[in-house]
Amino acid sequence: MGNSYAGQLKTTRFEEVLHNSIEASLRSNNLVPRPIFSQLYLEAEQQLSSLEAGSRVDNEEEEEEEEEESSESSNPPLSYQMKPPPEGCCTTDGFCQAGKDLRLVSISSDQIEVPSGFLLVGAKSPNLPDHLLVCAVDKRFLPDDNGRNALLGFSGNCVGCGKKGFCYFTEFSNHINLKLTTQPKKQKHLKYYLVRNAQGTLTKGSVICWKGAEFRGRQASSGPCSSTLFQPPESSGPPLTTTSELVPARNPNAPAGTQQTGTISDHLPSTAALGSTVYNGKDSPKQQLVKNNLPALTRPSILGTLTNPGPPKKRHKGWSPESPSSTETWNLQPNLQTPNRNKNDVGGLSCLTHSTLVGPVSSPMVASGEPVSVPDNLLKICKAKPVIFKGHGNFPYLCGNLNDIIVSPLLYTCYRNSQSISRAYEQYGASTIQPISEEMQLLLTVYYLVQLAPDQVPLIEDLEQIFMRSWRESHLSEIRQYQQAIPQAFPPVPSQIAPMTSAQLPWLAGLAASSCNDSVHIIECSYSLAEGLSEMFKLLIEGKLVKTNYVVIICACRNRALDSCIAVTGKYQARVLSESMLTPAEYQKEVNYQLVTGKVETLGSFFSTLCPDGDIEVLLDKFYQENQGQRSSSLSASVNKPTALDITGAAVCTSYNVERHQIRPFQLAVAQKLLSHICSIADSSTQNLDLGSFEKVDFLICVPPSEVTYQQTLFHLWHSGVLVELGLEKEHLTKQRMEQYVVKLDAEAQIKFKVFLQNSMQSPHTLFVLIHDHAHWDLVSAVHSLYPQAEPPVGLVDRLLNCREVKEAPNILTLHVTSFPYALQTQQTHISPYNEIHWPSSYSNGIDLYHENKKYFGLSEFIESTLSGHSLPLLRYDSSFEAMVLALGKRFPRLHSAVIRTFVLVQHYSAAMMAVSGLSQMKNYTSVETLEITQNLVNSSRQCPSGHGFMVVLRIPCIPLAAVAYERLYHVRERLSLADNFEIILGNPNSGITIGKHFVEQLKIWQKIEDAEWRPQTYLELEGLPCILIFSGMDPQGEALPRSLRYCDLRLINSSCLVRTALEQELGLAAYFVSSEIHMEKVVVNDVLESDPEKLSSTDNEDEEIVTEGSTSEKRSPVKRERSCSHDSASSSLSSKASSAAFCIESSPPLATPRDVAKSSHQVLSGSTEENTNNCERQRQKVEKGAQTVISKHLPAAAEQLDSKQNIKSAQISINSSSSPFSSSSSSSAPTHNPFILQTSQCSMTKASKQPPIVFLPKLVYDIITSTDSSGLPKSSSLLPYHSVMWASSFRPVMSKMMTCTEQSLYYRQWTVPKPIHMDYNNRNEGRMDTFHPRRLLLSGPPQIGKTGAYLQFLSILSRMLIRLTEVDVYDEEEINIKLQEEADQCYHQPGDMWPDLETFKKIPFDYTIHDPKYEDASLICTRLQNTNSDDRSMGRKQEDMYMRRQTTRMRLSKYAAYNTYHHCEQCHQYMGFNPRYQLYESTLHAFAFSYSMLGEEIQLHFIIPKSKEHHFVFSQPGRQLESMRLPLVTDKSQDYIKSPTFTPTTGRHEHGLFNLYHAMDGASHLHVLVVKEYEMAIYKKYWPNHIMLVLPSIFNSAGVGAAHFLIKELSYHNLELERNRQEELGIKPQDIWPFIVISDDSCVMWNAVEIDCSGDRKSEYTWTERNVSLKQILQHIEATPNVTHYALIGMRKWSSKTNSGEIREPFCCCHVHDFIMLNVDLTQNVQYNQNRFTCDDVDFNLRAHSAGLLICRFNRFSVMKKQIAVGGQRSFHIKSKVSETPVSTAPAQYICAPDSKHTFLAAPAQLLLEKYLQYHSHRFFPLSLKNYSHPVLSVDCYLNLGPQIAVCYVSSRPHSLNISCSGLMFSGLLLYLCDSFVVASFLKKFHFLKGATLCVICQDRNSLRQTVVRLELEDEWQFRLRDEFQTANAKEDRPLFFLTGRHI
Fold first, then answer.
1. Which of 269, 858, 892, 128 is nearest to 582 (CA)?
2. Which of these, 1146, 1153, 1274, lies nearest to 1221 by C-alpha position?
3. How far apart are alpha carbons 1098 and 873 in whole angstroms?
4. Cβ–Cβ under 8 Å, residues 232 and 1297
5. Strands 303-304 and 329-331
6. Tens-place pLDDT, residues 765-781
7. Pairing between β-strand 1888-1899 and β-strand 1716-1720 as defined by DSSP bridges
8. What is the pTM (predicted TM-score) of this model?
9. Contact 917, 942 (CB under 8 A)
10. What is the crossing angle of helices 1347-1365 and 707-720, to 10°?
11. Within its chain, how far is the Cα of 1087 from the centroid?
12. CA dihedral for 1726, 1730, 1731, 1735, sign (positive or negative)
């Protein structure tokens, strides 16, 4: 039955392989032939598309021979050579040869005839991995429930075509087109029973339990998923098995593969029994949970349980203890056997966990040959369980004492993955590049093991990188070739070096291992691995492998494939590896079991025998009785020092300073980056966030279920004041109210979360920010956590934050905040890479970007401290502790190492406390490091007058062990009478902080708290408390530690779980801010922070200052470290630390080696001052070889010369004065002896806050953290980032040291994929990029750096921005020239009148004076009645000041505001053109021409009309030519639309112009036309696709606003004529057509109306209020004015907050109107806007309209608000030189020049130069007029601004025009601007001028100038000189204007 092609590919040439592959591809119906390698080495990128795919990889049965050949050969396999199909038959996958569909999904509802005795089963085709093919098979040939009694052979029918009687499965597989690459076997391809559900649909049922299928699960990924050879699996829940309801009808029992093993597990809490079931391929976990409503595993258990070690029957050669999951291994437990089980009984087996990976890669690990018996007492003899890693080929059966070994497939997975060629090379056609051979893999593995140190453990990442590098080096030339050239169809085969043969392998491996002193032992086998394993067990029993850590067993024969396995026999390595295979839940359960069952008592009794004086308890009791009285009182006195300066001047410590909430520059920068990202989302075209629609911010902060973290977040929230700032709460905030905004993710979280969701739905105009803090915690998929009894609840984050309501709510923004974002950076993450915000770097190119007074110490700084050669490192390990743990591990092999490590460390702390308390004999029973910690802790509070001390964190992840440690240390402390000296706190994540009453009182005094009920609720509130904090919980959950933290003892962390996040979050506990400035009264120089970053990072614990004897000044050493106030020895300076209360100086020299410590340790407890002082000096001078060189500076000259007979107090003063933080960093010439400063310097808390804590690590972790990989990164960075993700491929590049956070994120996004238990696992849209959630952001930054403060600040500035978005700066200026206004003799209208009365209004005189404040710099228009003086006019001011100096005020946008393009809301989407009915491009361009005699030519305009607006226009029927714009009738009364078309001329404001009038018009129908210049047409069309555009002719591209007004008016009049003609044909009178248009500025934002209450007693009394109203209301009110068509211009006031009642007493006035006018185009037919004007064209038009006798009415009841827009409009005109390329500003004086001069010409319109010149320099033309307001300049037919210091008098030359009476008025000048034929000599002779008055004539050319002088007979009264002729500074082609000036004779 073996594969006849076994071994053939070893010698087959490449062409043959290629030929066969092509032939197989041609036979296949796949469109694209699959490359050779992908047929074998399926890649991780080919992920399955559903959870079903994740489960279909379970229990795929593989037989020995074909698997061996198909997967273990180093060459690609041939397809299995099936008989060619008959001519013309169907060969389509999923169909039989008769062409009938067999796929379950297609025929599940069909009625299928099943003969009696047959069952329907599902077959799997390798070409259709997502489908089952339906077959009918005789049940006699199928196994029973226990996997037995299946007849050999086959009998089946085709359910498609009905063909019956297939007697061979090979024949049947041909018929149903399985197209197999291996020999067909029913056991391999018949997978599932098929059953009908309640609806009668055929569905997949239970798995067919073939013999051994439950052990051989199918390998599910080609990507490595484990970070080490001992990667822990995912489950954190209890083990459980699942049974199925869906079993065949004939079989009421579940198949053996799913039988419950809970009964056994319940009675055996050992990890060995913690097996979990496989899903049996029946359903995906998700589907099965839904169907069966059974709880699922959080993550599959690693340890399976086997119950039948006996050999099975012959047919299947027994069972194989293997599971292919790369994360699982088995612990085979013979004690699970039931008695008298016969060898054929396989029932009752516990199913093994399926792989948590995805991807169909079959596992060939099949057992073969004779079983190998595991010897009894193996664990007892070896002192460790050997871990056997299956390698290549077949693995033998194991029987016997399976409890004492562990078998893992992890190495096999690594080999398999390393043979799959990366897609990166496949794309170059690299099918000729062979994967690394099996022989080379094994040899490289041997090389790797040989170079491992005795205390190192192998890492899978190391091995993968070795394979990758080896492969790349061996194929470098081919890779380059394919990268450089386009591959041909059949690239040439590169010549290769002869590969290593199987025969050479054992010899080469032995050669490699020969140099390692037998740490790697090679065993060569002849026939199978069984003999090698037997020999290994024999050697182990005989004790011949004592020095051997790894045994490599090789079976390499020429005629067969390579078999190999590797056994880890080293006690340390085997223990670490085996324990690493436990999940966190199993780890806790195992430890708890050992504690509960009393297995640890042997350890306790062993410790008690170590003490020389008998039991430690006896010693403690004896000590307690001897010292009870005096000790406690003296200690109490030493702690309870006076806390204030009393009358005797006793010193107090004033250094206690709990930092209040303040925003640091870093936090502000991050908050602003967050805000910037929010704005980017809002600004994008995706419409995912409409910031403009939100009025306020609300939030909810989700934190892990840690009580301390919860209270800590409340603490930060309280002090930030953000709730009050956001307006969510009032000033008097209670804690109960505050708790609504923070939710602890525990069982009660759903209640608060539900309220949050309800609020978000009820408040659509509130932006809700959902902040997920510590976001890497609990990323378990809700599918995997359906059992509610789990504690703590897992999958809650997925269930709440990923629920549909959160994802779809447009007003919920999710912000994930974490220090370890790696698990949220996978291929299937919800977070876009563009939405990631990383904490900024503090330095860029050596420049300090953010000036902070604190220096952050994180992981990189801690690592750096280990590299510097002149400081003691901050990261350390305790070698003596590790040695003791190792020894006890060998003595107690069955105890978990966590238990041993905890008991050893607790023993060390106990002994250290006893030694410090006076029991000096105990110092030999602790380590140097522990003694240092304890001694400094006990002494810390004695050194401070107020009793301040520092904190020691003792990290014990396992909660039961933490409780044991707490009880023991608490007991020892009580017996030693140290209860008042320091506190011991048990930090449990599920409960609050409990500390003694004495210490609570101390904290209340220090923090000045008067609340009697106060208790500390966060660790931050323990600032200054001397304590040991036992920090428990499997993972830290965001708890922050105070700045008095001094030691971080991590010796008990789970060092076997090597995952990047796990390691970094443990080290994150020590992350710290160090004060970089020392604030005090007497400091002169602050030099703590130097510019050298290396110095900053490598910190010393010594005061390293050189002191020259006899010198009073201190000098800095060139290697001076920044730590000027720390005194603790890094190694443990026992010799200088006295334990007597009389001499407690913490000034210790460095100790070179522990040997020195041992030598001098006897001196520690002696109270001799002389001895300690001398020893201190001796140690200072001594630096042993190999030690770190340190320069000690402890003793200044005074101390060194100290006489030993001096009293102790003087010694203390003398020594401590030098170690004061003040003296070492001040430049004072001598140390001060001020007692106040002296005492402050003693405070340990102050020292602790100025230096990072010292961290103690397990040796294994220390080695990984401090070693670097090839790229220079710490090795921890290359570990698997998180336990619920896996690598996508072994073929991945190494991370680079130079990677930024963003690049690291992209790396993980490319190379990691989530496991099925990860909440992002289902976030896949096949090949589409829309898997990112648009409103989800990720903020990442180092631990403890201030992320909470940053996101609270973000909420604050986000709220301010939203308020700012709803506010606008509007001009708020008083009307000008009010004093010049003519006092009205009478009131023409009553204040309450709604409309003006026409006859009354005609009596109102026109007010010539300009009152609009924007014309403050314009010339005053004089009337006869005005009496002006120079004080009434403002002084001229600079042009650039004009915009800046205008007063504005900030106003809240009302619901009737006009908006720019940044506003998006649901209501106006259709208005803006975002309605799907109207595509953006659906608009048409229409030409519209009319003739205008004044221009002498036809004017052609263009309209851009969107489809949605075509109903406003009339088109000719045949050609769709634009004919006219529809106009309503005067008599129309509808309230649904605005009758007047609105025209808005605009330039340069496509983004900022306020063209969205939807809300202003209150949704009413209206016609709005944007008037734009030709060159701006495209950009305006892009931003306003649904607006009508009127495009001006190109000749007006450089024109001013006058041209736009001119064309609007002329176009409107022409259109009015057309509409009159068109509607006249319909019987409508011409005068009934509506003649008004609205001309509006593009900055009009809101409109207001004054409501007047005239209900007073007298008519003259009234009250008024002003409110915001819609533009619709105002326009409809004005349009309803009686006799409205008699008014030529109607306008309104400009809004001002300073408006007084006098201004609105008269509701209507006749004066200038600006900005927003209604223009009657019929009445003003003969009054034109000046198309040349740039400024003041509205004033000019108003004057001419009035002089023509037209009525101009201003409604004073209405006002318009104008927004300040800083871009576009008038500012878009820049005057620059025409010659120079560089823009150089030109002064206005240069705007004119003499004709024919060589003046520099300017690139600007002549009219603009004229207007600007006259505005600033008109006094050169009219010197007599300067400030001579009683003698104005006479301006004929036009108004030009001559500047604020010159007044003008306007007169019209038109006959019958209205002019002011000028009799008796003497003018100081005459201005004639482009005067027409109406101006005649006789007209000018009516006016009188002062002697010396000046004349200025302006014409288009010099010829016109001369003709005008002659025509008007000007030379009669005016004197001209040749030099008085000027022109604008334009080139001839730009048509300059010419001036002629003269003096009055």
1. 269
2. 1146
3. 7
4. no
5. parallel
6. 899 999 999 999 989 98
7. unpaired
8. 0.67
9. no
10. 40
11. 36
12. negative
Q: What are the helix and strand counts (H, E) for the chain? A: 57, 56
Amino acid letter, 692: G
Rounded CA gap, 1323 and 1316, in Å? 11
- Residue 1449 burial (10 A CB sphere; 0-12, 13-18, 19+): middle
Q: What is the mean pLDDT of the chain?
A: 77
Please report the beta strands in 198-275, taking only residues with DSSP state E, as ranges in sequence order. 202-207
Position 588 pLDDT exceeds 60: yes
- d(CA 1047, CA 1038) in angstroms, rounded, equals 18
Classify residue 1186 as exposed, middle or buried by CB count within 10 Å of its CB (0-12, 13-18, 19+).
exposed
Answer for the pair 178, 125: CB distance below 8 angstroms, yes or no.
yes
pLDDT at 1658: 60
Can you name the residues that pair with 128 across neighbouring β-strands?
Answer: 125
Q: How far apart are CA 184 and CA 479, in angstroms?
A: 37
Tens digits of residue pLDDT in 1133-1148: 333 333 333 333 333 3
What distance in Å separates the CA atoms of residue 1438 and residue 464, rounded to the nearest whole number?
73
Q: What does R_g of the chain's alpha carbons equal in angstroms?
A: 46
DSSP string, 326-383: TT-EEE--GGGPPTT--TT--TTPPPPPPPS--S-------B-SS-EEEPTTHHHHHS
Which H helix or E strand runs over 106?
helix 104-107
Average pLDDT over residues 1243-1257: 86
Strand-pair category, 1847-1851 with 1420-1421:
parallel
pLDDT of residue 1069: 94
pLDDT at position 1702 is 74
- Residue from 1565, 1564, 1542 nearest 1555 by CA: 1542
Split at pLDDT 50, 70, 90, the class of 1203 is: very low
Q: What is the pLDDT of residues 1517-1546, one digit of tens each?
A: 888 899 999 999 999 988 889 999 999 999
Question: What count of other Cβ atoms lies within 10 Å of the Cβ of residue 1430?
Answer: 11
Alpha helices in 778-878 (DSSP H): 796-801, 804-808, 859-867
Residue-level length of the chain: 1945
Burial tier of 1846 (Cβ tally within 10 Å: 0-12, 13-18, 19+): buried
Burial class of residue 881 in the structure, from the number of CB atoms within 10 Å of its CB (0-12 exposed, 13-18 middle, 19+ buried): buried
**Max CA pair span of the chain:** 143
Euclidean distance between CA atoms 157 and 151, whole angstroms? 17
Residue 636, both tokens: 């109490």
Written in H, E and C, the secondary structure of 1808-1871 is: HHHHHHHHHHHHHCCHHHCCCCCCCEEEECCCCCCCCCCEEEEECCCCCCCCCCCCCCEEEEEE
Q: Are 1218 and 1231 in contact (CB under 8 A)?
A: yes
pLDDT interval class at 53 (50, 70, 90): very low
Q: Is residue 1249 within 8 Å of residue 838, measured between CB atoms? A: no
Interatomic CA distance for residues 1654 and 1390, integer angstroms = 9
Burial class (CB in 10 A: 0-12, 13-18, 19+), 1154: middle
Which of left, alpha, beta for 220 (phi over 0: left; psi -120 to 50: alpha)?
alpha
Q: What is the rounded distance in angstroms from the CA atom of residue 1261 to the CA atom of residue 1279?
A: 12
* SS3 assignment, position 1490: strand
Q: Find the mean pLDDT for residues 234-241.
A: 37
Contacts of 1747 by beta carbon, 8 Å cutoff, 6+ apart: 1850, 1851, 1852, 1854, 1857, 1858, 1859
What secondary structure does DSSP assign to 497-517, as a single string?
PPPPPTTHHHHHHHHHHTTTT
Q: Which of 527, 583, 580, 599 has the alpha carbon at shortest distance from 556?
A: 527
What is the C-alpha separation between 1172 and 221, in angstroms, rounded?
A: 65
Strands 1847-1851 and 1833-1836: parallel
